[in-house]
Design a protein that fits this description.
By secondary structure, the protein is α/β, with parallel strands linked by helices. Helices cover about 50% and strands about 10% of the residues. The protein has a five-stranded parallel beta sheet with strand order 2-1-3-4-5, sandwiched between helices.
Length: about 250
Amino acid sequence: MATKSQGSMEMDVASGHRIIDLRGRVVSNFDAGNWEEIGLLTGASPIIKGHSRLLRSLAWGDEDYAGNALVVLSAIAHQNPAALSIIEDYLETRFPGESVFISAKPSERKITFAPSVFTVPQAGVESDLVTAMMPFGAAFSPVHDAISAACQETGRRCLRADDIWEESTIIQDVFNLIFRAHVVVVDFSGKNPNVMYETGIAHTLGKHVIPISQSLDDVPFDIKHHRVLKYLPNSEGMLALKSSLAAKLRQVSP
């Protein structure tokens, strides 16, 4: 029989999942007017207007908007747990059948896509999930360990395609991981063609992409304008990679 504390924990987890789901739907659809209406409906106008970044990051399309929305929704739910149902009803009424938010930042233009090579997974984005797209092989095991350590240090999970086996084809598992991930780390070392392909998928889906490489010469010309974390393939280099990557991850709002 569940204890009172166990029941409260289960309720907290359930509320957390609801808030995360609402965050995705809100970021996909809300403008400043919608936030104002939610404030009136839930009595949370002071929370919404009092947040220093929420409406500003929405207006400017900043990458921290999704994180700010999560903070505000959590505060609203803490003030009034019944507000979650009010917001859910509002979304169903105003945005019936809306698309799922999978990008790392909001966009002024919404598109619907139906890939012919992949099946779009039912799962949504997992805010603590980082996926590593990199060459396989023993030589890259320390790199994977450094990425995983940086994720653990910043409260995230790291998965590669070889960590799961859910589909009959590996490319579908790869697509599922990129789709679900909030951040995608791509290692261009060795000019691996699979990594190039996976990077294109991640960019198209609007993910936070963090490029790393042992050599800047391995970075494709088309994306050389992106900043790349360069690392050395030795013990000191792995420590430096872990530190630099952890710092970058802290800049990316969940």
